C-alpha cells in the first residue's frame, strides 16, 4: 500500500508539472549606445524601451523541456569565438536573451542574431543552429515568432517620419491658468523658500503636481496625475482623460500611438503620446496605461 501511495504521488506530481503554466520572457536589443555595453543584460537594467523590446509568454513544462534539450545539444553544434564581458567596449554584441522559470529554478539563455545562435558566456562562444531547431520550437508560439520577425528599427524610423500634431502654449491651461501664470506662481513660492534646492534645480511638490525648474538650462517640467491631482490640465478648454479624447484632438498622432501602444510600453505597461508645442517651446506628453491617462508631463524650454 505504501508503494502505491508513492507511485500515486509521483504520477500526480508529473501530471501537475506537465499541466502547469510557466513564464518565459524574451528580449531583443534593437539599438545600441555608441560606446557599449556589449550585452543586452546591461540595457535591460536601464529599462529603456527604445533600446530593448521584451515580450512575456506563457509556456508549459514540455516547451521548457524541449528548450533545455536544444540548449544541451547545442554544445555539439559548430561554434565560433565570441567575446563579450562586463563593461567591454567594442566587443561583439549579445543581443537576445530568454529568462524562464520552471518548477525547479529560473534560468537565462543568451542568443545572438535574432535567436539563431546560442551564446555561452563562460566559454565566450556562440553555437550556430544550422538545423533551425530553435526556430522550429519558437514557431509553436505565434506571438513569439511575430516578436522575433518584427523589424523594430523600421518601425522607429516610420514613427519619426510621421506628421506630428502640435499645440500652442496658449491652448494648455492648469486650473484655468496659462503655463506662464503657473510658472510665475511656482517661482513666487520658490522665492519664499518653500522648495528644496540642489545644483541650481528648484523643485516643488504640491497636491500631486510636480514642477522642476532648472534655472541653469531654463527648462521647466510640470507633471500631474490626472487621476489623483487637485490640478486639472485642459487642452483647448477640454479636460481629457482617455486615449480616444486625445486622438480626437490630435488625429495625426493615431498611427504613432498605435505603434507605441503595441511595441513601446515600459515594464509597467505605460506608453506615451507626445504633442509638440509650437514655436519649439517644448512638449506635452500623456503617459497612458490601458488607454487611460496616468500622468501628464509638460516640458517648456
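-> sequence recovered:
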Amino acid at each position: 500500500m505504501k508503494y502505491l501511495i508513492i507511485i500515486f504521488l509521483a504520477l500526480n506530481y508529473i501530471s501537475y508539472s506537465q499541466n502547469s503554466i510557466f513564464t518565459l520572457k524574451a528580449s531583443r536589443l534593437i539599438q545600441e549606445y555608441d560606446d557599449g555595453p556589449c550585452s543586452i543584460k546591461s540595457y535591460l537594467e536601464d529599462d529603456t524601451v527604445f533600446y530593448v523590446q521584451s515580450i512575456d509568454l506563457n509556456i508549459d513544462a514540455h516547451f521548457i523541456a524541449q528548450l533545455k534539450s536544444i540548449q544541451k545539444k547545442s554544445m555539439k553544434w559548430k561554434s565560433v569565438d565570441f567575446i563579450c564581458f562586463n563593461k567591454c567596449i567594442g566587443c561583439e554584441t549579445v543581443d537576445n536573451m530568454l529568462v524562464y522559470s520552471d518548477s525547479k529554478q529560473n534560468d537565462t539563455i543568451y542568443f545572438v542574431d535574432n535567436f539563431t545562435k546560442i551564446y555561452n558566456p563562460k566559454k565566450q562562444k556562440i553555437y550556430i543552429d544550422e538545423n533551425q531547431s530553435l526556430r522550429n520550437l519558437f514557431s509553436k508560439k505565434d506571438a513569439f515568432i511575430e516578436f522575433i520577425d518584427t523589424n523594430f528599427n523600421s518601425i522607429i524610423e516610420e514613427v519619426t517620419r510621421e506628421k506630428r500634431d502640435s499645440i500652442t502654449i496658449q491652448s494648455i491651461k492648469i486650473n484655468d491658468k496659462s503655463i506662464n501664470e503657473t510658472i510665475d506662481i511656482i517661482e513666487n513660492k520658490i522665492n519664499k523658500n518653500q522648495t528644496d534646492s540642489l545644483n541650481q534645480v528648484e523643485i516643488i511638490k504640491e497636491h500631486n503636481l510636480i514642477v522642476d525648474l532648472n534655472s541653469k538650462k531654463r527648462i521647466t517640467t510640470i507633471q500631474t496625475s490626472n487621476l489623483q491631482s487637485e490640478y486639472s490640465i485642459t487642452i483647448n478648454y477640454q479636460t481629457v482623460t482617455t486615449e480616444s479624447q486625445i486622438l480626437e484632438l490630435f488625429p495625426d498622432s493615431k498611427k504613432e500611438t498605435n505603434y507605441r501602444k503595441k511595441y513601446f510600453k515600459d515594464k509597467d505597461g505605460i506608453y506615451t503620446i507626445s504633442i509638440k508645442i509650437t514655436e519649439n517651446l517644448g512638449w506635452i506628453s500623456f503617459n497612458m496605461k490601458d488607454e487611460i491617462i496616468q500622468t501628464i508631463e509638460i516640458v517648456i524650454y
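The chain has a mean pLDDT of 81.
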